[in-house]
Design goal:
Length: 467
């Protein structure tokens, strides 16, 4: 049984290249497009079973008589397991079959959503006492357990996608393809909000969990048919060979690197100063990202006197235009900066400071400019978010540890998310909303400083390689 389990998830062996050049070209073009759209749809659907709770919280809180503190504990259970799982599952994904690893995670996430709802059906607060504990306490911990488990399986989504994009697309095109794929996040959030809001209104809050679960399970089965592991497992050459792109000087060619996984992991992640700088910078990117996403509506309502509907509309602008910012950052870094990502990160972060200041200084009555500045914040946050902890991390390590590098920076990102949530609330209580704006601005400045140091380090490294 154990051997069957391991074989099911084990990465398939590489096959010898026996195809003709024409067959290689046709097979590559077919599967590159197929891998891309399958990965895109997969990550959109993953959000249906993760972001649904944000829409369900008000109705669920009333129905189960949960306080804001208890609802906050429930939400944090996913963040904790997601942050830890992203790294551990990243390591596992590097040596696993994308075709089985990702769909299984999606189906298990769906099961967690079903169990989450069933907990509320079988344990009714105030009616039964379990082992001397109030039933309300038992219910809360059951909800936290299943939502935390959901976070773990959700963290299995991004690492195999990172592996696929790294192996199927070469360095010169990866920024564009990665940025286009990254819009799946914004589309996923938007789709989840629309679907969850509709089903809650017509079927109640539980429907926001079991209907997305059904969609996720069906999609998981479909993905098993669509996805494949890296090109070599299909008898194809490395993508750089297929596209006639030279190997980077001073680096070992991927297909000739015979070191153990741990040795590659140690060199390219644990002992890689670039990865460490990216990871630390990612803390501050997430402070800005979650600070604006989670607190902007409250800021607009309390400071600028907006209605909840108007404030939410402004926040939706931030999310939707953010997708365009990610694409723009990827295309510019590919086409203008020749796959050098750090300069575009610095430019976007400088523009983000300008956007934050303009948004804070804009008079409350000028709603049109608020929409514009919110859109700019979304655009100039999404670019560094997509690049620093994602594409830059992969390209600064080795494709053989692509998923682990994403997981490593992801841990630091969710440290930033925790700091953003607690830090923003604390500063608002102590210093008002100016304290929160200052927190986000200082975080952006620190990120610029780290990226500047990284740029100097990278230029020095390239200069040594040429000597």
């Amino acid at each position: 049984m154990t051997n069957r389990f391991i074989e099911f998830f084990k990465e398939p062996p590489a096959r010898e290249v026996t195809m003709s050049e024409e067959e290689i070209r046709d097979t590559y073009e077919h599967f590159r497009w197929r891998i891309f759209y399958s990965s895109f749809i997969a990550y959109v659907v993953f959000h249906l079973c993760r972001k649904n709770i944000a829409v369900a919280l008000p109705s669920m809180g009333k129905a189960l008589n949960l306080s804001n503190t208890e609802l906050g504990l429930l939400g944090s259970s996913l963040y904790i397991t997601y942050g830890m799982g992203k790294f551990i599952n990243g390591v596992l994904a590097d040596k696993s079959n994308v075709r089985t690893f990702l769909p299984t995670a999606l189906i298990l996430s769906a099961i967690c959503n079903i169990c989450f709802v069933l907990s509320a059906l079988f344990v009714t607060p105030g009616h039964v006492s379990f082992f001397g504990l109030p039933s309300a306490t038992v219910l809360l911990w059951l909800l936290c357990f299943f939502w935390g488990a959901n976070g773990w399986f959700q963290s299995c989504g991004f690492p195999p996608v990172a592996k696929s994009l790294s192996y199927w697309f070469s360095n010169s095109e990866r920024g564009t393809k990665w940025s286009l794929w990254s819009t799946s996040h914004q589309i996923g959030v938007f789709s989840t909000v629309m679907l969850s809001g509709f089903v809650i209104e017509h079927l109640g809050w539980m429907a926001a969990f079991y209907i997305p679960a059904i969609i996720c399970a069906i999609t998981g089965i479909w993905l098993f048919d669509r996805l494949r592991d890296k090109p070599q497992t299909l008898g194809l050459p490395d993508v750089e060979k297929f596209r006639n792109e030279p190997q980077v000087k001073c680096e070992n060619p991927e297909d000739k690197d015979e070191r153990s996984y741990f040795e590659i992991f140690k060199k390219h992640i644990l002992c890689n100063p670039i990865i460490w700088m990216l990871a630390i910078a990612y803390i501050f990117v997430y402070i800005i990202r979650f600070g604006t996403e989670d607190w902007l509506v409250k800021y607009l309502v309390e400071v600028k006197g907006n209605s909840l509907t108007l404030a939410s509309a402004k926040l939706s602008t931030l999310a939707l235009v953010g997708a365009g910012g990610a694409i723009l950052a990827g295309v510019i870094s590919d086409k203008i900066y020749k796959s050098n990502r750090t300069p575009i990160n610095i430019i976007f972060l400088i523009c983000l400071i300008i956007s934050l200041l303009a948004f804070a200084k804009n008079p409350a009555e000028n709603n049109i400019l608020d929409f514009v500045y919110a859109a700019m914040i979304g655009m100039f946050t999404s670019g560094p978010q997509m690049l620093i902890g994602g594409l830059c991390a992969v390209e600064s390590s080795s494709k053989k540890v692509a998923s682990a590098s994403i997981g490593f920076t992801g841990i630091f990102g969710y440290i930033g998310a925790a700091m953003s949530s607690g830090g923003t609330g604390f500063l608002v209580d102590k210093f008002g909303w100016n304290g929160a704006i200052g927190f986000w601005l200082v975080s952006t400045l620190i990120c610029i400083l780290i990226c500047t140091i990284l740029l100097i380090y990278e230029e020095n490294k390239k200069r040594k390689c040429k000597d």
